[in-house]
Design a protein that fits this description.
The complex is a heterodimer of chains A (about 190) and B (about 575).
Chain A: H1 11-26, H2 33-48, H3 53-63, H4 67-76, E1 88-93, H5 96-100, H6 103-114, E2 127-132, E3 144-146, E4 149-151, H7 159-178
Parallel strand pairs in A: 1-2
Antiparallel strand pairs in A: 1-3, 3-4
Helix pairs in contact in A: 1-2, 1-3, 2-3
Chain B: E1 4-10, H1 19-32, E2 39-43, E3 54-59, E4 63-65, H2 73-82, H3 114-119, H4 124-132, H5 135-145, H6 157-166, E5 173-178, H7 187-194, H8 196-210, E6 214-220, H9 224-239, E7 255-261, H10 270-277, E8 301-305, H11 306-318, H12 320-324, E9 334-341, E10 347-352, H13 357-364, E11 374-379, E12 385-388, H14 398-403, E13 412-417, H15 422-436, H16 442-459, H17 467-481, H18 485-489, H19 492-500, H20 502-509, E14 525-527, H21 537-541, E15 547-550, E16 554-557, H22 567-571, E17 577-579
Parallel strand pairs in B: 1-2, 5-6, 5-8, 6-7, 9-13
Antiparallel strand pairs in B: 1-3, 3-4, 9-10, 11-12, 11-13, 14-17, 15-16
The chains are: A alpha+beta (about 190), B alpha/beta (about 575).
Bound molecules: flavin mononucleotide, iron/sulfur cluster (2 copies) and FE2/S2 (inorganic) cluster.
FE2/S2 (inorganic) cluster binds near residues 98, 141 and 143 of chain A.
């Protein structure tokens, strides 16, 4: 269910919604307004990193498409997410080669280390994990991806150290930011 | 033309990808030599070699170097790029069992450079077709070629085009299916990334043949580089007047747009794909009417796979008869496979139809990875089946694979050895289909779920003698009554493993044993006292408290507490833990 709205819309969200409005006006009307919807959802997903309720309502209003239909689209397609992405999004390949090479055990260990289920985010917003289809490096399976970094020939034992690396990296980035250098921003993808 | 191109790919197995690092190193060296404007460096997805370390290909001239080290870079630049001299110690021999038609340009040209494509005979076929051929003639050429769809079903491309051509309508569409669903295949992505123009050209020839003025690329959003390359290529084609109104001064006008898929396997099915483009949930529709009669927004629409379209320009350029000579009686041309599993050289390969599985595994794949023997080869992904080792000498083509109880599919090929459990593999594929079922029709939704729970039972020691018959019955219902190909074929991996490896199922059910040692709940772990050096590593690693003891008396494993996680087995350096 879509949770009831509690917070007023932030400035940042407002300015992003404006961008969505501009996109809707300039993007080609693919046959009809419904044909424009997929493109719009992709745009929002890239812009926010997920599909916030405000954005879905906004699109519904602009394109005169019921929110129920938009919500139906958002839940049908795996690529769209209704929750903000974690800072470090982990993807495990669920392709055949990775499975044959023992991918299931990587998943088990990761779940155990993070204590969250598929598609969830850790309470501190640091890690989330999901599965992805073949990443095209089957020869190096099993494969795990953290944001843009790819880890090949994975074994469960490597997981704690990898997670630790990102925790340290994050702390360092926070310190740099405090010192006012600010070059390590994680805008998310 | 003195501009040189260096293509770059790290093909090492089991090491971090060094492409990025080498890319910068080469750029730096080129700058030092003041060559930055006459040499271009491109990172490519596939270069035709595997497990050869860092591979460099230098064009024109076609020299390929393997196992390149940092210290080799300077000599490569000064001697080969500047001096046109081949360094024999680094040069690789090309693999002669392969024949590259679809992948002809992949790794050979810079995919973002329009002139490169033109230099490789790009758009020559299009020009010939729209200035010299009538649409009927295009279809005749395709008929002579014998090309069949590479998206899975193997339907003759000329027939599909001919249906759409014969329907009268003021608007027709052509769609390229770049949703690549098979969880173990990535050839479509490599072609889109490595040779985007040839897919566009193939689509345009199709559009001309059927009378379409609008085309769509439906590409998975998870392939951002493929999307970017196609986007660039479309922009270039518009810039050079190859897309848009009155192309090359003819009456033919054609526009192309990209639509992104959003991670649903069922959207690879053609009616679901069209629904998705229209902005709906991607659920399949009953056929007929077929899309070639009534497709996108009710208009005649041809849907072709990426690999199918990449074949088209070559066929039109060299002639259908030329293509028809390659392959077997009913399967013409080549097929690209994503060869993986327990094999030395994993990667994309392209072979003429009719090549034997043995040639693929042992000549191109370099043989088995470990000393373990080959057990079976899986083809066709979640809709396919397994081919046991007795049939290694069978030629690979549509008819033959079907006869063996598998299918060609989109081209995943996974080689399995004695360590792989086929019940487990069947479960993997079925689980994939159950997760990806759209849920629209009951046989697929409920049947898949039921069959999966039977398999879960069997692999966790709760199977009963009647389970196999039950699974066969459910499979039959799913095949007969499901709406789309997903449900109709989801039981294939189960049926085919049952056909060839019934004994393996029986040992799971009757003896509660998994000989391959894969099915976790059928395993028992034991400490072998004679081998145990009392290091205690297993104790610290067992988070479930199943191991007790100390360094003096040794360690004991309590099977009642053991969750069979296998961690102790992995950490023990003395192989003192037995799994069986
Ligand atoms: C569940 C399902 C998934 C499919 N996935 C793909 C796919 O990812 N790519 C593809 O080209 N065809 C896929 N197909 C086949 C398409 O429906 C269609 O037959 C094909 O794109 C036609 O192109 P072709 O004639 O060039 O092979 C799928 C079919 C089914 C039933
Ligand atoms: S067979 Fe499965 S995937 Fe296909 S329409 Fe029915 S429920 Fe959906
Ligand atoms: S298999 Fe896992 S649970 Fe069982 S004894 Fe070994 S470490 Fe402990
Ligand atoms: S199966 Fe995991 S990368 Fe291909």
């Amino acid at each position: 269910m879509i949770p009831a709205k509690t917070k007023p819309i932030s400035k940042e969200t407002q300015s992003k919604l404006k961008k969505v409005g501009e996109y809707l006006e300039t993007s080609p009307r693919l046959k009809d307004q419904q044909g424009q919807l997929m493109g719009a959802l992709h745009y929002v997903q890239t812009l926010f990193g997920y599909l916030p309720q405000e954005a879905m309502e906004y699109i519904s209003e602009k394109l005169s498409i019921p929110t129920a239909h938009i919500y139906g689209m958002a839940t049908f397609y795996n690529y769209f997410s209704l929750q903000p992405k974690a800072k470090y999004q982990i993807y495990l390949c669920k392709g055949t080669a990775c499975y044959v090479a023992g991918g299931a055990r990587i998943q088990e260990r990761l779940k155990e280390e993070l204590k969250i289920g598929l598609g969830e985010t850790t309470p501190d917003g640091m890690f989330g994990w999901n599965i992805t289809r073949c990443l095209g490096c089957c020869g190096l399976s099993p494969v795990m991806q953290v944001n843009e970094d790819i880890y090949v020939r994975m074994v469960p034992e490597k997981i704690p150290a990898i997670l630790e690396k990102y925790r340290r990296q994050d702390k360092k980035a926070a310190k740099v930011k405090e010192a006012g250098i600010g070059a390590f921003d994680h805008p998310g993808k | 033309m003195d501009k040189k191109i260096v293509l770059l790919k790290d093909t090492s197995i089991g090491a971090a990808d060094k492409t990025k690092e080498y890319y910068s190193l080469i750029l730096n060296l080129l700058r030092d030599q003041n060559l930055q404007d006459s040499v271009q460096v491109v990172r490519v997805a596939d270069i035709g070699f595997y497990d050869q370390g860092l591979v460099l290909k230098i064009l024109p001239g076609q020299v390929t170097y393997g196992r390149v080290q940092e210290s080799d870079l300077l000599p490569v630049i000064t001697e080969t790029i500047q001096g046109n001299k081949v360094l024999d110690r680094l040069a690789l021999e090309p693999n002669e069992k392969q024949l590259r038609i679809v992948l002809r340009n992949c790794g050979q040209i810079d995919p973002e450079n329009f002139d490169d494509y033109i230099a490789a005979d790009g758009y020559a076929a299009l020009k010939k077709v729209i200035t010299e051929y009538k649409p009927e003639q295009v279809i005749e050429q395709l008929k002579a070629s014998g090309l069949r769809g590479r998206g899975g079903a193997g339907y003759p491309t000329w027939m599909k085009w001919n249906f759409a051509r014969q329907v009268k309508a003021e608007q027709k569409y052509i769609v390229c299916n770049g949703d690549e669903g098979d969880p173990g295949a990535y050839m479509d992505r490599s072609v889109l990334e490595g040779d985007p123009h040839s897919v566009i050209e193939g689509m345009m020839i199709g559009a001309y043949a059927i009378g379409a003025s609008q085309g769509y690329f439906y590409i998975r959003a998870e392939y951002p580089l493929a999307v970017e390359r196609i986007q660039k290529a479309i922009a270039q084609a518009y810039e050079y007047g190859l897309l848009g109104k009155n192309i090359l001064g003819t009456d033919f006008s054609f526009d192309v747009e990209i639509r992104l898929g959003a991670g649903a396997f069922v959207c690879g099915e053609e009616t679901a794909l069209l629904a998705s483009i229209e902005g709906k949930r991607g659920t399949p529709q009953p056929r007929p009417p077929y899309p070639s009669i009534k497709g996108l927004w009710g208009k005649p629409t041809v849907i072709n796979n990426v690999e199918t379209l990449a074949n088209i320009p070559v066929i039109l350029l060299k002639g259908g008869a030329w293509f028809g000579k390659i392959g077997t009686e009913k399967s013409k041309g080549t097929k690209v496979f994503a060869l993986t599993g327990k094999i030395k050289n994993s990667g994309l390969i392209e072979v003429p139809m009719g090549t034997t599985i043995r040639d693929i595994v042992y000549h191109i794949g370099g043989g088995m990875l470990a000393s373990k023997g080959i057990k079976a080869v899986q083809t066709g992904g979640p809709s396919g089946g397994v081919i046991p080792k007795e049939f290694l000498d069978e030629p690979v083509d549509y008819e033959n694979l079907q006869k063996l109880g598998s299918i060609m599919g989109s081209g995943g090929m996974i080689v399995m050895d004695e360590d792989d459990c086929l019940v487990d593999i069947a479960k993997f594929y079925l689980k994939f289909c159950v997760e990806e079922s759209c849920g629209k029709c009951a046989p697929c939704r409920i049947g898949g779920f039921q069959m999966l729970s039977l398999l879960e039972n069997i692999t966790s020691g709760k199977g009963t003698a009647s389970d196999l018959a039950k699974m066969r019955r459910i499979a039959l219902a799913m095949q007969k009554a499901s709406l789309c190909g997903l449900g109709q074929t989801a039981s294939n991996p189960v049926l085919s493993t049952l056909k060839y490896f019934a004994a393996e199922y029986k040992s799971h059910i009757e003896d509660k044993k998994c000989v391959a040692g894969k099915c976790r709940y059928l395993l028992n772990y034991q400490i072998i006292p004679e081998k145990c050096k009392k290091c205690g590593l297993c104790l610290t690693n067992c988070v479930f408290g199943a191991i007790t003891g100390n360094r003096e008396q040794g360690y004991i494993l309590d099977p009642a507490k053991c969750t069979k996680c296998g961690r102790c087995y992995e950490v023990c350096k003395f192989k003192a833990i037995n799994k069986g």
